[in-house]
Design goal:
The structure holds two protein chains of two kinds. By secondary structure, chain A is mostly helical. Chain A is built from nine helices and no strands. By secondary structure, chain B is mainly α. Chain B contains eight helices and no strands. The longest helix of chain B has 39 residues. Chain B starts with a helix and ends in a 7-residue tail after the last helix. Classes of the chains: A mainly alpha, B mainly alpha.
């Protein structure tokens, strides 16, 4: 089976990165290729642009540090998604600890951030959908976002989230029902 | 972007209206953000990490030996042979031969503890005598007062009582002495009739009622 152009391109980037002379340019290409996908994956979880920017930078710094040792057991973008998801979940945990008010998963803090977003309009369906997503628990939110927005196959999602395919399917279906309930309220 | 068929089929299989919803993200992103992000990232990831200078190969490995060698050859401070062995004797001779320093006499301050003890004992004795004398004199005065009172004639005492006593004092005396005490102080040469006459005269009849 022929590899997809995306995967071939990733292998070229990887090879160029391992060459000291072409490392910087390879890294720049890698960033340009995946920055938006990773950006939106993070932003759907944390809402704020500034926080997303900070986390995204941390993600690519980790990629820079560890790309030389990348074993290619998974796809490059799956590996990067895993780093991004872990960084995001870690950041959310830190936010909970810093907050003096106890915040449960999908609680009011992110909802408040959403309402404060530029152009927020509760009557518009796309904003209501974001509110519904923010009401989900963190990991379930990640499952829903990866499947619904990034169209990630369950097998790759299992690598990203280190959870079984069956559990992910159940979690996604459950999340879909919750979102529907929220939108029909 | 049109969702992949697999995603849509899955949502339709769940009878979910999400299959028909727009997936456009409503969030605002600063203009030019994605254009400038890689450059911003390069500074963040590479700016503090790499130095532009070249270092000769093996430089740090040989550095320690190089420094030691340099120290050996550049050492201009020479110590005469046997200097440290002779130093104690040299110093001792110098000290003995100086003779100009006068040993300072240390001032001796004698501490006569027994003298202090004697003073404390004398003070204690004086205080004790003073207290004792005061007590003794006080007792003498008290005893002489009692003797003087005892020497007073009964008539004088009776006269004093009659002039100074009142009903309250009478009640107090009666209650203190009790029946037996009253009997004891009753004069033997007075009859009950004489006593009643006395009481009528002084109108002190409340005790009889």
């Amino acid at each position: 089976m022929a590899e997809s152009p995306i995967l071939i391109d990733d292998q070229v980037i990887l090879a160029d990165f391992r060459n000291e002379d072409t490392r910087d340019s390879a890294f720049t290409r890698l960033v340009r290729k995946y920055q938006e996908r990773l950006y939106w994956h993070i932003r759907r979880m944390v809402v704020e642009h500034e926080d997303t920017n900070d986390i995204l930078q941390n993600v690519f710094i980790k990629v820079w540090k560890n790309l030389s040792e990348f074993r290619q057991e998974a796809n490059l973008y799956t590996w990067m998604y895993r780093i991004a998801t872990n960084e995001t979940l870690t950041w959310l945990d830190q936010q909970k600890k810093r907050s003096s008010v106890p915040i449960t998963d999908g609680e009011s803090d992110l909802s408040n951030r959403l309402i404060a977003q530029k152009g927020f309009d509760e009557k518009k369906l796309e904003w209501r959908l974001q509110q519904a997503i923010q009401s989900l628990p963190e990991k379930q939110r990640a499952v829903f976002a990866l499947r619904y927005y990034d169209e990630m196959p369950y097998e790759e999602m299992a690598i990203v989230l280190e959870t079984s395919v069956g559990a992910l399917k159940a979690s996604y279906h459950h999340a879909v029902k919750k979102v529907e309930t929220f939108l029909t309220q | 972007m049109k969702p992949a068929n697999g995603i849509l089929d899955e949502l339709r299989g769940l009878n979910s209206p999400l299959a028909d919803l727009s997936r456009a993200m409503p969030y605002y992103v600063p203009e030019g953000y994605f254009m400038s992000f890689p450059d911003q990232l390069t500074i963040a990831t590479l700016g503090n990490k790499q130095m532009p200078f070249d270092v000769p190969e093996g430089y740090f490995d040989a550095l320690a030996d190089n420094v030691k060698t340099k120290m050996a050859t550049d050492n201009v401070l020479v110590v005469p042979e046997g200097y440290f062995e002779q130093l104690p004797y040299t110093l001792l001779e110098k000290v003995k031969s100086s003779g100009t320093t006068k040993q300072k006499e240390t001032k001796i301050i004698s501490v006569d503890i027994w003298r202090t003890v004697r003073w404390v004992a004398a003070a204690s004795l004086f205080i004790a005598l003073g207290i004792g004398s005061y007590t003794f004199i006080n007792n003498i005065q008290t005893k002489s007062t009692e003797k003087e009172l005892a020497a007073l004639p009964a008539a004088t005492i009776n006269e004093y009582i009659q002039n100074n006593i009142d009903e309250f004092d009478t009640d107090l005396i009666v209650s203190t002495l009790g029946d037996n005490g009253v009997e004891q102080i009753k004069p033997n040469n007075l009859t009950d009739e004489e006593i009643l006459q006395f009481l009528d005269a002084t109108e002190s009849t409340t005790e009889l009622n």
